[in-house]
Amino acid sequence: MGEPSRTETPSSADYNAFQSFVCTDPPNREFDRHRGLHHPRIWELETQSAIRNYRFPIQSGDLAIAIFDEKRNLTGACLATRTEDNDHLIQAIAVKLECRNSGIGSELLGRMLKETSNHQDSSGLVVARIHRENEPSQQLFTRFGFIPDGYDQAEPQYTLWWLDRFQAP
């Protein structure tokens, strides 16, 4: 028997955990023995801001999936909303730096896809905007069957990725 899922739908009681979530380094130059001299990447800062600014209670059509540690600190989150066309747009997915490469991103995205399939009036299309330099997210979404489909016209540094659950293998 497999290990039970650690993912859950957060509540208003988790507001402070979302507000203090960190998935990137501070916005200044730092040296890390693994990453060398670096600045946070723009998509990391944007994603961190999206999660920190998430508003509770969860609104109709919105979905939020979270994983917490034993002290109820946010370890990872995935946020999505339903569009006017009844598609689901994944707005953010992030994992704390020290928890990356542990399967949390896959667990979050898998649970989010399960949740979007529970919406009976859904079009079946799930869309994500991924920065063209964000290779870890591109690899994650590719593993789940997402296909890149051109650039976001408003922000060409982002590629639109989509998954049609009714046509997926």
TrEMBL record:
Q: Which UniProt keywords apply?
A: Transferase
Domain N-acetyltransferase span(s) in chain numbering: 26-169
Cross-referenced PROSITE patterns, in alphabetical order? GNAT
Taxonomy, superkingdom: Bacteria
Which GO MF term does the entry hold, naming one?
acyltransferase activity, transferring groups other than amino-acyl groups
InterPro entries under this entry?
Acyl_CoA_acyltransferase, GNAT_dom
Query: Is the Transferase keyword given for this protein?
Result: yes
What is the protein's given name?
GNAT family N-acetyltransferase
